[in-house]
Design a protein that fits this description.
Blueprint: E1 7-9, H1 17-27, E2 31-34, H2 39-46, E3 50-52, E4 71-77, H3 86-94, E5 125-129, H4 145-152, E6 154-158, H5 169-176, E7 180-184, E8 200-202, H6 209-218, H7 220-233, H8 239-247
Parallel strand pairs: 1-2, 2-3, 4-5, 4-6, 6-7, 7-8
């Protein structure tokens, strides 16, 4: 009955969709905001306008801290192997086949061999999956402010779309902290990423992964150019800009 616009913010789009759609129709929302790439399909199905409102970034929290690069290549987080095998495929490329059960190449007991394949051992690599811990049982995944500092200390960082194809926040965080994004080719990046401009992409079958990783690490001029472009691009993805685009709809 009220005359002000009613907006529904979708969250966890992978759960109980039918119940959520029913709620949206019954409440007669004027607009639905979602990060999911299927926004136009859902809008047509419900007959209600959907706005693709991607995640944003806090540029106060994530920025160039000016730290010296400590790692050549990093990955932290979950493999999401039940939804996509891309991160696991990269792990198989990096790790020795008999040591794939290890969640990290850090905090390894001295009697164990280096789990990283010999051709990558010349690089400083930080790999830590969810649940990985050091000898004192401390998590090997940086959190809080240390998370942003860690990315700023890394030359090249692996990232992939989320399990259901959502452009996740880490892409923006890497852009803001000047860590080069190394990611698989995908049609889910939209207008956000362009290979060779603000990221480096490798083929889904990993046939050129080694070439792209080595180039990203060793070609300093190319890396600086790409991270500079990414750093410039990320300013338009702040949460302030996201809300401005929403308000402009009305």
């Amino acid at each position: 009955k009220i005359k002000i616009p009613k907006v529904y913010f979708f969250n966890k789009e992978y759960k109980k969709l039918d119940q959520r759609f029913d709620y949206i129709k019954r409440q007669k929302f004027d607009l639905v905001c979602t990060v999911h790439p299927s926004f136009d399909v859902w809008g047509s199905k419900l007959g209600i306008p959907f706005l693709h409102l991607p995640f944003g970034i806090s540029l106060d929290r994530f920025k160039d801290f000016g730290y010296k690069k400590q790692y050549d290549f990093s990955f932290t987080g979950g493999l999401h192997s039940t939804h996509t095998d891309m991160r696991f495929l990269v792990k198989k490329e990096i790790f020795k086949s008999n040591l794939l059960d290890l969640k990290s190449n850090k905090g390894i007991s001295g009697f164990l061999r280096n789990p990283i394949k010999e051709k990558y051992q010349k690089y400083k690599i930080y790999w830590a999956e969810w649940g990985s811990r050091d000898f004192a049982l401390r998590s090997l995944l940086p959190t809080g402010k240390k998370y942003g500092y860690f990315m700023n200390r890394t030359k090249v960082f692996l990232n992939t779309p989320s399990a259901i194809g959502i452009f996740n926040t880490r892409f923006f965080e890497l852009m803001a902290t000047k860590s080069l994004i190394l990611c698989p080719e995908s049609d889910t990046y939209g207008e956000f990423l362009e290979d060779g401009h603000n990221c480096v992409m490798f083929k889904d079958d990993l046939s050129n992964f080694n070439e792209k990783l080595v180039q990203s690490i060793e070609d300093e001029d190319l890396r600086k150019k790409i991270i500079s472009n990414a750093f410039s691009d990320v300013s338009q993805h702040s949460y302030v800009e996201r809300i401005r685009s929403l308000i402009n709809r009305f």
